[in-house]
Write a structure and sequence with these properties.
heterodimer, A: 483 residues, mainly beta, Porin, two-stranded antiparallel ribbon, 22 strands, B: 264 residues, mainly alpha, Cytochrome Bc1 Complex, Chain D, domain 2, 2 domains, 11 helices, 2 strands
């Protein structure tokens, strides 16, 4: 037991000099599981990193309203390069036993119904097909943290449910360059700087696990296409699979205010929709976004923002004939004759006490050359237009407490200009609804588990093989865990 | 009639008493008023992983932190504007929460809305009975800063010597004084003296005025004493300016004056 030379100076009782010297040295889950349908999900769709909680000691809930959805504190931590800013962010201050790694996966049960699946047995060519059963997701293996003070990294090998890995994310970020929060530079493969992040989506089913408005591409109306009389084998094949929710390759410059109320970024990206090994052309895309939060007294923090993606995709490639002869093949990376596409929109994060409302609007355009894969040196067939569409989404979150959140989402996408003038005006239009809740049995700083029942539906006009409307439905219950 | 007056008098007194108690339990930071009930959930979300559900610094992660999280039940706080031994003001607690504590695990919570921070302050005060029975101390005054001159810095060096600061902080402010290995805090845990050369900031603020205040109030619960009443304002400012020269990683007017004299 230590003794003290001066114990009156601890400031408790108002002592004077305070140097102190010492001498010497549920079982109910199974029932619930069977009650719901579920669907496989790519685990990289969400971002929750228990390694950060283990590093900082804070509960998951400090940074995640319901993981992986961020709180304002979590957004600030992320924007600071996953740093607290206490001069202890460098890994030299961590226990050597600390390892910046986390894994996430989602065992699940799900049921999928396609109202108009193309089959050989159906007289009309399509029929309802339903499948269901127990399943697994893929896995995220997060490695994330600081290499040194103000140098951050993420490596995210991610697998599908078959165990095929790819690098979902891999980047290094230099934070607070020139001692300014407004100069942070990130390079590698990363998610676009969305405040409304699809990677942090709380719904996981096959239908409800993505934001439709982030991935919609114009549909090719087979009947109208045939009426153009164009027979080239290339036509009708889109030259891009771009999605706003896809991770991209490039450099991002990002800045934010101290409390993160104001934030903005601009990225220069390889025009490959995140595909590695330079498979397309030498051109670059640009993404920019900015947002501002306002403290509206009793209503809380409200954020509004805008974004724009300006992309290009090649419509022609150099080709070569294989040694043994045969059909010429395109040379990867030799694309040229680029044509453009855009995604521009706005979003808001609104909150009223325990209710969060997140509206997103997107206006999208795409060159007909890109949409139909028409070489840029050819004339567009008569009746072919560059498609234009608008997407609207509103997502609701009701956070009952740290352990329970209800999610509801509605999306619609309306084509303002079809690729083919002869297509029905509502061809390809889409409506999507998702409802779910997540229950977190515990909330500590080591790991996370959420039990999530979910139902989702997407209804799209005229897109089945028979030209009829098509509805996809998912019912899902998953055990979403991260360690 | 007389009974009626008596009853109303009692009821009014009771109401005033309750209102007064409620006022004391709330937090008041400028125009903000924080409420205990509202702060409970936010404390659970953001704070109790380290500070514990009872505010006793025994959160699930506390055992892995060095320094350990603050034990609010003691009512002893490092960063105050009030004299040593007294309770801090609500604004002191709010500022600490907003600023975070450099070299400790306590982050800045500036990204939380001011109302939420005020609510959390109201709630954390409930952990310590002192906040129910005592009022915060009166914030000390901070006199006008003296000019930074080489004579002033030399005077500060003399104060540093006279007050034996080097016994803990070391001659060069590296926190390696001869007494450094022996220091403990109020919980009898080893506590290293601050290394001035390591960072540009201090635990209780970044400005010269905040450093002056810290020197005068001391850091309760640690061996850092309070110099209020022991140093004159001129000596206090001289010490501030000298300590600034020990921050070798920071460009400051003090270091500029020092380097102009050819001193490294």
């Amino acid at each position: 037991m230590a003794d003290f030379r001066k114990t009156e100076n601890w400031g408790v009782t108002g002592g004077n000099r305070s140097r102190i010297l010492k001498q010497g040295g549920s079982a109910g889950f199974a029932v619930a599981l069977i009650a719901f349908l579920l669907l496989s999900i790519w685990p990289e769709k969400a971002t929750a990193i228990p390694a950060f909680a283990r590093k900082t000691g804070m509960r998951c809930a400090a940074c995640h309203e319901a993981w992986p959805k961020l709180t304002s504190v979590g957004q600030n931590y992320k924007d600071n390069g996953y740093q607290i800013g206490n001069e202890r962010d460098s890994p030299v201050y961590q226990s050597p036993l600390y390892w910046a790694m986390a894994a996430r996966a989602t065992p699940q049960w799900h049921s999928e119904l396609n109202s108009a699946e193309a089959t050989n047995q159906a007289k009309s060519g399509v029929q309802p097909v339903k499948t269901q059963g127990f399943d697994i997701s893929g896995m995220d293996l997060w490695m994330a943290g600081t290499i040194s003070k103000d140098i951050t990294f993420i490596i995210l090998p991610s697998s599908d449910e078959y165990g095929n890995f790819h690098f979902e994310s891999m980047w290094v970020r230099f934070d607070n360059l020139l001692k300014s929060r407004w100069l942070n530079v990130k390079a590698g493969r990363f998610e676009l700087d969305h405040v409304v992040s699809e990677k942090r989506i709380l719904t996981l089913s096959q239908v409800g696990g993505t934001y439709q408005t982030y991935h919609y591409l114009p549909q090719v109306d087979a009947k109208a296409f045939a009426a153009t009389g164009v027979a080239s084998g290339e036509l009708g094949t889109s030259r891009t699979s771009f999605g706003l929710g896809d991770n991209q390759l490039g450099v991002e410059v990002m800045g934010h205010s101290k409390n993160d109320y104001t934030r903005a970024s601009i990225s220069v990206l390889t025009s490959s929709d995140g595909a590695v090994n330079l498979p397309t052309s030498k051109s670059y895309d640009t993404f920019m976004t900015a947002s501002r939060a306002f403290d509206i007294g009793p209503l809380g923090l409200q954020r509004v923002g805008a974004f724009s993606y300006i992309g290009r995709a090649p419509t022609r490639y150099l080709t070569q004939t294989p040694g043994g002869g045969g059909t010429p093949v395109e040379i990867a990376g030799s694309g040229y004759g680029n044509k453009g596409f855009t995604r521009t929109g706005g979003f808001a994060l609104l909150s009223v006490k325990k209710l969060d409302i997140v509206p997103v609007y997107t206006h999208a355009t795409e060159s007909a050359f890109v949409a139909l894969g028409i070489p840029s040196n050819e004339a567009l067939p008569a009746g072919v237009n560059s498609p234009v569409w608008n997407g609207r989404m509103v997502e609701f979150f009701y956070t009952q407490n740290l352990q329970f959140i209800v999610i509801a989402r509605y999306e619609d996408i309306r084509n303002a200009q079809q690729i083919f003038s002869k297509s029905a005006s509502d061809f390809g239009d889409l409506d999507a609804e998702t409802i779910a809740f997540r229950w977190y049995p515990f909330t500590h700083s080591r790991a996370g588990l959420a039990i999530e029942p979910e139902y989702a539906k997407v209804h799209q006009m005229g897109v089945s093989a028979a030209g009829t409307n098509q509805t996809l439905r998912s019912a899902f219950i998953g055990l979403d865990f991260a360690f | 009639m007389r009974d009626s007056i008596r009853i109303w008098t009692c009821l009014s007194g009771l109401a005033l008493g309750l209102a007064s108690y409620s006022w004391a339990q709330d937090s008041h930071i400028g125009k903000l008023t924080g409420h205990i009930a509202a702060g409970k959930d936010d404390f659970a979300r953001n704070c109790n992983g380290c500070h514990g559900v009872r505010g006793d610094g025994k959160g699930t992660f506390a055992q892995y932190l060095d320094p350990r999280p603050r034990d609010y039940t003691l009512g002893v706080f490092k960063c105050r504007s009030t004299p040593t031994g007294t309770l801090p003001t609500d604004e002191d607690l709010y500022n600490t929460m907003s600023r975070g504590i450099v070299t400790a695990a306590m982050p800045s919570w500036a990204s939380l809305r001011p109302e939420i921070r005020a609510d959390v302050i109201a709630y954390l005060k409930t952990f310590c009975p002192r906040f129910k029975t005592e009022k915060p101390g009166t914030p000390i005054g901070i006199p006008a800063e003296t000019a930074v001159t080489i004579a002033d810095i030399k005077a500060g060096a003399e104060v540093y010597r006279k007050m034996e600061c080097a016994r803990c902080h070391g001659a060069e402010g590296r926190g390696d004084g001869p007494d450094a290995p022996t220091l403990i805090d109020i919980k009898k845990r080893p506590i290293p003296p601050y290394d001035f050369t390591q960072t540009e900031r201090f635990k209780c603020g970044t400005t010269n005025a905040e450093l002056y205040r810290t020197l005068m109030t001391g850091m309760d619960g640690t061996p850092m004493p309070a110099y209020l009443g022991k140093l004159t304002p001129e000596e206090g400012w001289a010490l501030v300016h000298f300590v600034r020269t020990l921050q070798t990683a920071r460009k400051s007017p003090e270091r500029k004056v020092l380097s102009a004299t050819g001193t490294p």
